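Fold sample X.
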Amino acid sequence: MGRPPRPSRSGSTPLRPEPIDYEGDSDSNVVADAGPRSRKAARTRARLVEAAKEVFAEEGLLDARIAEIARRAGVSYGSFYHYFDSKEVLFREIAANVDALLRAPVDEVILPRSDLAPQERLRKAIQRHYETYRAEARFLGVIEQAARLDDELAATRAEWQREDSLRVADSIRLLQRRGLADPNLDPIVAAAALGAMTHRFAELWLAHQGSDADFETGVDTVTRLFINALGLAPVPARDAAER
């Protein structure tokens, strides 16, 4: 995976890259909606993103080379800088996209759109979360390393995790009002603790192979920990067998 990235503490590089200014790029010296040349620029940019994700996953942020990213994308070294100010900016953009995918299943619990019981919605959300983590495990391992050394990246991820935790706390309150969850739980503390468990176990299990549990066992165990912690009634064995 390569060594972890060097810290980035200057505050000079934004976590969310500014929109690309294509002026002066031979592939993209047009406004964004001007036609074929702008579409060509968009395709070039997409190739750079795809190539960079592969290189970062293989080498880590520190050891990844712009020359190799450009080579895999089929563009010149200089062309890279028409699209991104640095490899760190590109890394952060890809990290934001992957984190967004990872956060999506939270809505399955917060905004139920089915008649499933809370226990089943919970299991499906955890399963989807871990499926996404498993698919992106190599790159997520690099993100975890980078976030421990890069204050800006860490701050952005911490804010997203705080937002998700507050949303889960709202869901716990709703379950409490309906008489489905332990009324003595503090929703804020419960949401933070359960979120930390879910996230850190995924890193240990799927990114670093620190557990040899098979996928179904991992999902079922974390689901049961959630159910027990919240004081929900367990899923009947008959229903579990039908999954």
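Fold sample Y, listed below.
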Amino acid sequence: MVRSVNEWDCGARSVLDTGRYAIDTFTAPGGIRAEEELFDRFCQSEGDRVLSLWTQSRCLVTTPAAARATGFQAAARASNLRGWPVILRRSGGATVFHAPDVLCVTLIVEGSTDRPSIDSAYIHFAALLKDALALLGVKATTGEAPGAPCDGRFNILVNARKLAGTAMRTRASGARLCLLAHAAFLIGERFADGLAAVEKFEREIGLSSTYPADRSVSLTDLVGPSGSARFPAALERAFSLSPAMA
């Protein structure tokens, strides 16, 4: 297992920034840029897989589809004035929020072009995340979470509440296939501001979004601050014990 090392500057702090397993921290949009650069480097070189754990300062992360919406520029300016700058990612889905207490997990792997379906890759990735949570005594499932931002089929759920969302994309590089899997976990208890920021932004681009806080849950809600601080180690253990994903 190779873990990424990034050198972007960020003064943000997280409940995760303690102990042996320090988290790479960035000022937005540094985290998204670093993930893109890591994927580019991986696709251009030989490698088995890379695991990167990171956070960035608070921002909204949205999609090219949202950027084409009427009123996007005005909504992005308004969000920035509220303290939530809007940045774009290349994957699909919908708008999410990042903050120092949102842990991003990036796994990049190499597979053959005779790969299984993307659903199979999602299932395997979700199983690794659930294995890590199980090391903390948390029983998680996979599925949809209506009423949570960027809902999808492969959310990580605890008691039907969304703890993390997932995303994937692939890139062909000669005979190689490179796959980037991403998850974003709510770690800190105070995530209502982030939900409200996503809701406000999406309404300003014409969506009728409502995100009640009881549709989401944080890891600290489940295992307390000390349990949350152990999560990076649990992730590294779960991924190190796993065979290749693709």
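Sample Y note: Confidence is low (pLDDT under 50) at residues 1-19.
Also: The CA atoms of residues 58 and 99 lie 4 Å apart.
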